[in-house]
Amino acid sequence: MPRAEWNFVAKRPVVKIEFQIVATGQRTELTLLADTGAGESDSEFDLILSEHDCDRFDGVLTRSVELVGAYIGRFPVYMMVAWIPSIGFSDFVRVAGVATSPERHDGVACLPFFNQFTYGNFGRPDSFGLEFDPTVA
Amino acid sequence: MQLTPIQEKNRELAERINEEALRDPSSPYAGKFVGIIRGKVAVVADSLRELGKSLESLSADRNETFCIEAGRDYTKVHYV
User: Which CATH class is domain A3-131?
Assistant: First the structure.
């Protein structure tokens, strides 16, 4: 099964995910904090990005969600496409749009996102990785 | 966030659909992913992926489009 691994950023686990910039048609890679404690397995969002990014990546509006913790309040949720090319992942994700991203990261990847992968440090304490089987997606 | 009149109309329809799905599990929308364009239901799908691909094929203006997974409790608070 293909695996993607990324070194920690600011001593915290991350995943790098690509999104398409509508205006140019080009993809750009964002570095998201990998937080398996964010959200619940059945939460209505997979990722948290700035509203600015939700807009430039052509997010389609869905229902809003109420968050507490690092973000407090009701936030819009958008549907958009995300890619991790090295493991053959390409799918629609639900993204909560917030005013500001966490310091030194472009956003947060939450538990519902990780539940479609095998994830962890795979024996390397300074990195985080995902394994994905495209044949079962 | 400030909604445009079309987005507001879409959101109102989405809320009605969700309330119907919550009230009546036999509703055709219950458990479905619903795409709304300019105040009308345009897509009813079984998965987020199917919904997204269907909306892409319609080439709808994203500012006139709204999505909902019908039958969920959107009042729930999520810890992040």
Answer: mainly beta
What count of CB pairs under 8 Å joins A to B? 76
Answer yes or no: do B78 and A40 touch at CB < 8 A.
yes
Report field, pTM of the whole predicted structure over 0.90:
yes
Radius of gyration in angstroms for the set of CA atoms belonging to chain B, rounded to a whole number: 13
Judged by a CB distance cut-off of 8 A, whether residue A52 touches chain B is no
Residue B66 · residue B10 · CB < 8 Å:
yes
* Cα–Cα nearest to A120, from A36, A17, A39, A43: A36
| Helix residue ranges, H only, B1-80 | 5-23, 48-58
Within 10 angstroms of residue A61's Cβ, the number of other Cβ atoms is 25
Sign of the Cα pseudo-torsion (B12, B14, B17, B21, in order):
negative
Answer yes or no: do A48 and B80 touch at CB < 8 A: yes
ipTM of predicted assembly, 2 dp: 0.92
Q: Tell me the one-letter amino acid at A132.
A: F
Task: With H, G, I as helix, E, B as strand and everything else as coil, classify residue A42.
Answer: coil
d(CA B21, CA A77): 20
Digit-by-digit pLDDT tens for chain A (137 residues) are 899 999 999 999 999 999 998 778 899 999 999 999 999 999 999 999 999 999 999 999 999 999 999 999 999 999 999 999 999 999 999 999 999 988 899 999 999 999 999 999 999 999 999 999 888 76
